């Protein structure tokens, strides 16, 4: 690491701290030549491999802008979208890979979007999973209904199933 003041090719780390969101490390460094201090920020790079083979850096902003279209007219705030993008990034970074397919990012978007807003989820899934027919929509809606019924049954502890005298 070159000193930004005297261009000496070495420095020593005086202090290291992890950022609040845990995605980067801030290091305080000191130059052994001039004695001046400076800070660096280190992040693990994550690149997205698009369908056409082009690689580009991962961007939360692209997640937000893509999902925002599906959320038009829905009660979803910018803060909700920021949290969703952070969850998606945490999911894809947890794979440990420095490169991830764009398709895998789309798959990582679906679960948190479904929790956030089911209509937005259906809109996004219809484009992302290339729904071609009404049956594709019907199957997705039927699955959402099944999941709702299962969640309601588990929340009520199975009440109402065979408890009659």
Describe the overall structure.
It is built from 5 helices and 6 strands. The chain is α+β, with helices and mostly antiparallel strands. The strands form 2 sheets. A 3-stranded antiparallel sheet has the order 1-2-3, with no helix packed on it. Strand 1 and strand 2 (24-30) form a beta hairpin. Residues 160-165 have low confidence and may be disordered.
In short:
The protein is α+β, with helices and mostly antiparallel strands.
Topology:
Elements: E1 12-18, E2 24-30, E3 37-43, E4 47-49, E5 55-57, H1 60-70, H2 78-93, E6 99-101, H3 102-116, H4 118-128, H5 134-155
Parallel strand pairs: 4-6
Antiparallel strand pairs: 1-2, 2-3, 4-5
Helix pairs in contact: 1-2, 2-3, 3-4
Salient structural properties:
3-stranded antiparallel β-sheet, 165 residues, 45% helix, disordered C terminus, single chain, alpha+beta
Strand tally, please? 6
Number of helices: 5
Q: What would you call the structural class?
A: alpha+beta
Q: Are there runs of 5+ residues with pLDDT below 50, and where? A: 160-165
Question: H/E element string?
Answer: EEEEEHHEHHH
Q: Roughly what is the average pLDDT, rounded to an integer?
A: 88
Integer-rounded radius of gyration? 23 Å
Oligomer: single chain
Strand order of the largest sheet: 1-2-3
Distance between the termini: 78 Å
What form results from the Cα inertia axes?
A: elongated
Question: Can you give the helix content as a percent range?
Answer: 40-55%
Query: Biggest sheet: strands, sense, closure?
Result: 3 strands, antiparallel
User: Strand portion, in percent?
Assistant: 15-25%
């Amino acid at each position: 690491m070159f000193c930004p003041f005297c261009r000496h090719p070495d420095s020593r780390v005086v202090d290291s701290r992890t950022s609040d969101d845990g995605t980067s490390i801030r290091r305080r460094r000191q130059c052994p030549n001039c004695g001046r201090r400076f800070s660096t920020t280190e992040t693990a790079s994550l690149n997205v491999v698009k369908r056409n083979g082009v690689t580009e850096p991962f961007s939360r902003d692209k997640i937000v802008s893509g999902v925002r279209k599906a959320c038009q007219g829905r009660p979803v705030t910018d803060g909700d979208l920021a949290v969703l993008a952070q969850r998606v990034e945490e999911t894809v970074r947890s794979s440990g890979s420095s490169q991830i397919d764009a398709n895998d990012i789309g798959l990582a978007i679906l679960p948190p979007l479904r929790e956030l807003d089911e209509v937005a989820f259906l809109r996004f899934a219809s484009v992302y999973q290339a729904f071609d027919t009404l049956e594709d929509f019907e199957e997705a809606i039927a699955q959402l209904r099944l999941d709702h019924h299962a969640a309601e049954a588990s929340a009520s502890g199975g009440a109402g199933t065979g408890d009659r005298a």
